[in-house]
Structure formats: structure tokens, C-alpha cells
Amino acid sequence: MEGYHSNVMEQARTNDDFRRVVATTEHTQLVVMTLPPGEQIGSEVHTGTDQILIGTDGNGMSVLEGVERPFGRGDAVVVPQGVRHNVVNTGAEPLRLVTVYGPPDHRPGTVHHTRAESERDEADVPPGG
């Protein structure tokens, strides 16, 4: 990849997929996500990967090591590797966000239309994983 340029906030606002990988480099990965009302990313811990989540639309809650905080448009959450985390849509509208992984956490070009689909995708491993 030689680089990537886009209006990622607009991509997030028009994305209806649970997860859509939009760019992957050797050291980072850019992803847009949408959580329908009541949906969550799911409590997880990344080993060897940091994650940054940025809210673009909607209302929800971030959970880091059990500590809940409001999460919505303009909010950023930095999740160091090894920290248990989750994002939950607590609103009536979709919660849309941008996330950056370092290093990548999904195979390049991954699209999961739903959370259930992402949980079934055993081939979804980072490059070199």
C-alpha cells in the first residue's frame, strides 16, 4: 500500500456494517464500525495490539476494565493492549465509530455485516497471524 486518503468521518456515517476494514499498513489499521441500538462490540482483550476508538454519531458507553463512561460523537477512547474493553450502543440510533489498531487486528479488506458474522469468521486474523 502506498497510502490512503479519505473522509473517514463520512465513511463512518454512511457505513451500516458492524465492521469494515478500510485501510491496512504494516503497523496500523483503519476500520469503521456501526453498532445498532442495543448492540455492543463485545468485551475483549487484545494481546499485542493497541486500539483507538472515536465516536462519529450516536450515543453509547465505553467500558475499560469495568469502568463505564459515556461514549458518543467526538469522544475518543485509547485502549492499550491487555486492557479489557467494550463499547455498547445505549441509544435509539446507530452508534458509529472509527477505530485504529496498531498493529492490524483483522485481515485487510474484512467486512462483517453483523457482530454474529464477525464471531463466526475464523479466517479473520491479522496479517502475518
- Judged by helices, strands and strand pairing, the structural class is mainly beta
Number of helices: 2
Q: Which of globular, elongated, flat, extended, rod-shaped describes the shape?
A: globular
* Spans of at least 5 consecutive residues with low confidence: none
CATH level-four homologous superfamily name: Jelly Rolls
Instruction: Give the radius of gyration.
Output: 14 Å
Please tell me the CATH architecture by its name. Answer: Sandwich
Beta-strand portion reads 35-45%
Tally of distinct domains: 1
> Could you spell the SSE succession in H and E letters?
HEEEEEEEEEH
Q: Fill in the CATH topology.
A: Jelly Rolls
Question: What would you say this structure looks like, in words?
Answer:
- This protein has 129 residues and is mainly beta.
- It has a single domain (8-119), classed as Jelly Rolls.
- Helix content is 10%, strand content 40%.
- The protein has helices spanning 8-14, 115-120, and strands at 19-24, 29-35, 50-57, 59-64, 67-72, 76-79, 85-89, 95-102, 111-112.
- Strands 6-3-8-2-1-9 form a six-stranded antiparallel β-sheet. The chain has a three-stranded antiparallel β-sheet with strand order 5-4-7, with no helix packed on it.
- Strand 1 and strand 2 form a beta hairpin.
- It is globular, with a radius of gyration of 14 Å.
